[in-house]
User: Fold these one by one.
Assistant:
Number 1:
Amino acid sequence: MNSGTPKQLIRIEQRNPAYWRVIFDNPPFNIFGPESMPQLNLVVNALETDSKLKVVVFESAVPDFFLTHYDFVPPLEATTSMPPGPTGMPPLPDMLARIGRAPVVSIAMIQGRATGVGSELALASDMRFASREKALLSQWEVGAALVPGGGPMYRLSRLIGRGRALEVLTSGNDIGGELAERYGYVNRAFPDAELDAFVDTLALRISTFDKEALAAIKHQVNAATLPRDADVAPEWDAFIASVGRPQAQEKIAQLMQMGLQKNHDVEARLGYYTGTLSH
Amino acid sequence: MNSGTPKQLIRIEQRNPAYWRVIFDNPPFNIFGPESMPQLNLVVNALETDSKLKVVVFESAVPDFFLTHYDFVPPLEATTSMPPGPTGMPPLPDMLARIGRAPVVSIAMIQGRATGVGSELALASDMRFASREKALLSQWEVGAALVPGGGPMYRLSRLIGRGRALEVLTSGNDIGGELAERYGYVNRAFPDAELDAFVDTLALRISTFDKEALAAIKHQVNAATLPRDADVAPEWDAFIASVGRPQAQEKIAQLMQMGLQKNHDVEARLGYYTGTLSH
Amino acid sequence: MNSGTPKQLIRIEQRNPAYWRVIFDNPPFNIFGPESMPQLNLVVNALETDSKLKVVVFESAVPDFFLTHYDFVPPLEATTSMPPGPTGMPPLPDMLARIGRAPVVSIAMIQGRATGVGSELALASDMRFASREKALLSQWEVGAALVPGGGPMYRLSRLIGRGRALEVLTSGNDIGGELAERYGYVNRAFPDAELDAFVDTLALRISTFDKEALAAIKHQVNAATLPRDADVAPEWDAFIASVGRPQAQEKIAQLMQMGLQKNHDVEARLGYYTGTLSH
């Protein structure tokens, strides 16, 4: 994949000039890695600069997976050698921060597993709606002796409160759609068969409203709620530091042995498997 | 209405010296406008200075409407020419901030539509209880290309979290009592037949407690939760700026054409009608 | 009790070196007083320094009472004469702040009344799980003309929002397990028969994870959510000031007359009795 045209992992489907769907399409698990970075960056650039765009829905074309954890196959240097983004932060925290500040409404529509980067992208989006039957949200990292790096300690805590955030983050458990709604991790959970229609109606409605008013409203909400870059940057540093520790290398090796990134069941029931590792 | 005794739009009913009901009574829609300002100010003054008052319940005498949007009939200058209040902010954000700081517990009892100013007054009150069948809360402004001016970007975000607040504020949708409770927009929703008795029991109980202890408790909660004036003042400026923009003037003209401030159905289903405007 | 071996009010049961149960055992009501302070301090020291400990569950050995209000029998000086803790704050706010900062996950398992200090310790813990049938949480203090002193104005407001926190704090009402979950006062409520097994499974899972990763995750959540000492210290000062006021002395005397600290029904239905005091 290092030469020639890179595989398209993220597609844009324009429902109308004001309303786009952004579709994660990296089967079989929608793993997010160094290759995904520049493709997501094109989307974030559009959120910041497209003069007609008002609302964007993040969704997945891969059954069972919205977007999941970071890719452990490429060497860590493939990530740490990337130049920082416009905020001065490394690419992933940079793009997540810019989604929050962009003058466009962003909606995560979660119909499968949103783990690690998937949960972090959902948390960086303006709203989240989940399938009652199929959504699984988690910050699984602690189960591999890792610290999450994409801002969930700050964003999840501010969204659902310290107590529930600490449960999600220190247990690494999978959270289904119904509990995610009860905790406020998502705005609402819907029966899977109704989710897309609800999100589509909402996004279409927003796309008829005035872009300047939408941006001004979001600007004020941002002032009340967004973390500063200095609040989330240490989470990325803590993630990178944790990847290098022997405890994490040992746990990741165990998971790889079990079939991480290869075996559907390991990816689909990641919360279960992290609880079975020797320690 | 500019000469003679102004119509009484807000009445006070003293259940006992420590417990007052403040009743919005401006039929047919409980629209809030320049005339309402000095009358609400008398109430806010009492919250700040009455030595016996401990708890106040805001309610409506108008069926289907708790308190709704700002009056679009008087010229904007009738509002912008008003002198600032004691905080230095214009009258509406001034009074809402002072309700939060007053040493008296304030409870909004919502049995009809609380839209725009109605939602903002409810959010500025210390607690909110809603009718499960009859309450409709909304910040409808975006549907008319307006930015809400009374602090909801800050207050609602802090109350229900960034994700749900952005949904309410960028969709302009009507939120019923049950969903309002699920989102934390109100403390709790009750069957309409039980709401008044619940609120009355609660307010009577509080009215037997020590005023000094109540005030000291609220003072500490305020330190942890209230926005500074500098946090909410920009929302009013953004509202005034938005009213002057052609996009808003065009949408308001369309709504007036449909019967805004005249037709019961337009006021009662405002969220529906803003979704039908041409854009 | 002032000479000889002090009664053991707080016991530690090690499920494994990484997972301890801390058991409040001061029958018949699990009242918390000056004698409890040094015993809780030993626990807090262990949370801060034990190299193997990862997760601790606070529970009660006393039926119907998790941990309740401060002891009104010893003279106030027995409390105010205690030297400050390592934070520079008096012992109770000091220990509660240190539980929040400790590199160990703390879980309150609430199967009876958690009132006053009991609620405050639960709020200072990282998570809270409650019995649906048996848990009763409250900050009852306002009913005795007191101001709570252990940080709930800050911690509860940040956890459940200004509106619901003001209801809990200015009503002094008892909050059952189901409502406590709905308000976010606890993470979740479970049928009493299932609570211990849920908490045990969760704590065991956490105890298999890497201590360094757990501590780093909690450190970042702390940065996003913990009050500064300067935020909570004024609550203790307000409590001490309120105890000395004649209104509080009069209400406490009435409650003592009714059987506070002696009569099971007064302790078990404290929210009811505070509503019956003459004022």
Note: The mean pLDDT of chain C is 97.
Number 2:
Amino acid sequence: MVSLLTIDFYQRKGWKRLVTLVEIAKKLNLNVSTVSRALSRPDMVAEATRERILETVASYEYRPNSIARSLRKGKTCTLGLIVSDIQNPFYAAIVKAVEGIASGHGYSTVVCNADENPQKETEALHLLSEMKVAGIIHGSTGANLHILQSLSRQGFPIVDIDRVSGLTDADTVLVDNQAGARLAAEHLLELGHTRLAVITGPQHLTTGRDRLDGFRLALSAAKIALPDALVHIGDFREGSGYEATVRLLGLSSPPTALFVANNEMAAGALTALRERSVLIPDALSLISFDDVRWAKYLEPALTVIAQPTEQLGTLAAELLFERLSGRKEVVRRVLQPTLITRGSSTPPREIAVADA
Amino acid sequence: MVSLLTIDFYQRKGWKRLVTLVEIAKKLNLNVSTVSRALSRPDMVAEATRERILETVASYEYRPNSIARSLRKGKTCTLGLIVSDIQNPFYAAIVKAVEGIASGHGYSTVVCNADENPQKETEALHLLSEMKVAGIIHGSTGANLHILQSLSRQGFPIVDIDRVSGLTDADTVLVDNQAGARLAAEHLLELGHTRLAVITGPQHLTTGRDRLDGFRLALSAAKIALPDALVHIGDFREGSGYEATVRLLGLSSPPTALFVANNEMAAGALTALRERSVLIPDALSLISFDDVRWAKYLEPALTVIAQPTEQLGTLAAELLFERLSGRKEVVRRVLQPTLITRGSSTPPREIAVADA
């Protein structure tokens, strides 16, 4: 059993752990290898002896090191979750949903925040790989495909959530972003708007691209022009929503309706509109992706495209556990967003006046 | 070098890694131990040989396993951060601030969500201990003192953030919660309110206790009674704020002013007030702890006690790095919250009417 002890020595908490094993053995007048075996292969130790050892171990607060064990077995009971922005309540809700499923399977979840920064995502992927997490749920920044492929080859199951990383053997859970953006555009078109603007996210992200595409398609189907000046590409963060809105309001002919492709940029848009006393919905109808909590508390409350956030997180975790249970084929699930009409979207003023 | 190889064997990615070392050695016609040494003690290998080895290693995408290394050194370049509720934007802001400092020191941050659940906190503490994080920043659920003491004895530096865990050798970064609650009460008293209610958090948490104490002290100093019916103990989550508000509104003589001790419960209070069409501030003045983003977007905007959230996170991380650099004495930093007066707090109606 020398090799096993050697492992214990190096892989548990250094010498201290070995001392603890030795101490326990001494105290019980047993061989150290018996103590070690009682912890690693309890079925090989007589029940009475095992009981005595486990009791003593408990009294020492000795806790077998699951990461050390996992280095032999090759995995831990931990899921890694990389979110692209922890301050976005959309991702906080996903963390919660993933944890709910993971903890039902006896797994812990560690969260890394890529902060929309490819370099931080790189570090997070390396860290989770070194932790030997059982699998990774990954809201991609759009970079690091190379590392993802390498992790996948090493046997880490990976689930893409919300955004497609490009990894062909990852399971994927997405919202139909194009359909969501189409719903938003069609709602504004039905209200009678003809000068519509959009603030979308980065075009290397599926979310940013699909939300622009859906919006464009709906306008094109309705034969409404979408001039370049009314299309802004932000970075899904508050500041870019603010800046794009300021530029839209500065146009000689500003839009009468604005679709913002996530809640963070919508918060920025709101700040710009308040600062300039632009009345919603009188002067500008506003609709945003994401039904975050504060959307319904605004005055007027915000019309939104709601994503089934909890379901996204739950499904992603379930797909990961299916993989861990042996499923081989790649699964892609696309969930449908819904339109929630509230006070921030009305017919444009000229139509409302003509109606009156 | 056999023992070193043994470590590599067990601590890197199992047999595969050994095979990789052997492969590299074969390819370069070198001894395996030379390859191993070039990775672990490069100064002991001739430069030309080292260069050849490192080049080949790079071509294999071989990456030394920092957790395995850390098992020998006894620490990783990773901080563990336990937040008590990831959906609370207060903690999301703290995550971001901690990450900022950590990444400046070349450290990664992993986040665990205790979800206000002592059992999840237990799991998170064990997980971080097994990961051998360099240190732990900990927003306590108020439980697990026993485990914290054990981790501290094992040499994990621990910083309490926002809430006191009871661990005497932890550094602590807090907001002066009593002062914050006093500010809130004094503001409402100055407006002329005499029937004030409070919804606070669990009394086993310093935040819940101190925010009630501060409120009570200010009322007592002003010789204003605080009957039990106007004091509600929630759990810092949205639902409890909702329920407490419903009960307050059901009183034969409801309060004219309400102080809610965090933003999550304030969101619940708002829902209850909206559902029952209770006008803010006409029928009820509202003030909440935490200047979360949506507070200023409400109509009327919410009067709040703002916490220096970013500074809390930054300081906590800085204290942890000071510990890692050798500081021995225990440090406790208490930051001051501030009152931000907005539209949700006005004189009670009878006074406003009398003034007119």
Note: Chain A has a mean pLDDT of 86.
